[in-house]
Amino acid sequence: MLKLALIFLCALSSSVSASAKGGPRLGGGQLHKYRYSTEVLLDRARRSAGGSAGYRISSAVDISLAWRNPSSRDHQLLRVTISDVKIESATPRPDKDNIFLDTPTQRILGTANLAALERPFLVHLKLGKVKGLYSYQNELTAIRNLKRGVAGLLQLQLTSGKTQEVDASGRCMVQYTAGTDHVTRVKAVDTCKTLETGFSTHSQVLGVSGKSSSVTEFTLEDGFVKTRRFRGDARPVRQHPQLCRRQSRVQTNFDTEKVKTKCRTCPTLWEYWQGMRKQFEPENLSKADASRGFLSLIHIIRKATKEGHPQKAVLVTSA
């Protein structure tokens, strides 16, 4: 269960206007300071004495206008800076069980990763929709996804109606209901389409389908976001510059990336097949181990390189 909360601390100026058909606009020469937090809860089995487990990441977020298209006030680049990053347990825990207690963020993330997270980046915002991010080369996928999450907090439509949006869940159908000083966004999670293939998408099983949605509530002040609170069952996945050196930025899309890990002890496709072959004999196909083994085999085939595929042997079972 993923909870997102964006809490407004202060705005140095309140003269921010909004487009009648687009999204919120940020005034030039103004700095908006927010407090951002995200929680990841991993629920234990019911009746567990330990309760829920998870962690919370909180930080300060500064947002200012870097550029605006002279011919379209709703086409803008925003400079976003994350700072004062803290990681703590998401639920109250005894000191002896709290692994985050008295542990500096620098030690948890690492010095280089924390520095990468706190480097400013640019968000391309057009008509209230995030079109892309300008980040740095060779950033870790996890760091870039955290920046995408912060950038997603800026995505907002100020008029009622249905539209398609891209966020951490993929490309989804979204319903906006706009009021005087608040906007409610309802996302139909079952409509979300992602580039990732496999067994992570909503699908019918035995003719049964389900619908799920997530609700985000915005409160506005002078046409710009004051607070943003999230509730629902969406799957997981929110200045004064001083030039020290020049470094090119790399534009990335707004779809989250899957964190890729390299397994050093995983068997090759051929080694796995040799160990699991007996489970695929006809007399064993009705067993649960055969089903689990087949799914694992599919995943290994997808990840296998050309060199990892057997050249002379053919993966077959006896008829």
Automatic annotation (TrEMBL):
Pfam family, one: Vitellogenin_N
GO MF: phospholipid transporter activity
Protein known as: Vitellogenin domain-containing protein
Domain Vitellogenin per the UniProt entry, residue ranges: 30-220
GO biological process: cholesterol homeostasis; lipoprotein metabolic process
Coiled-coil region(s): none
Transcription is among the record's keywords: no
GO cellular component, one term: basolateral plasma membrane
Extent of the signal sequence: 1-18
Cross-referenced InterPro entries: Lipid_transp_b-sht_shell (IPR015819), MTTP (IPR039988), Vitellinogen_b-sht_N (IPR015816), Vitellogenin_N (IPR001747)
Keywords assigned by UniProt, alphabetized: Signal
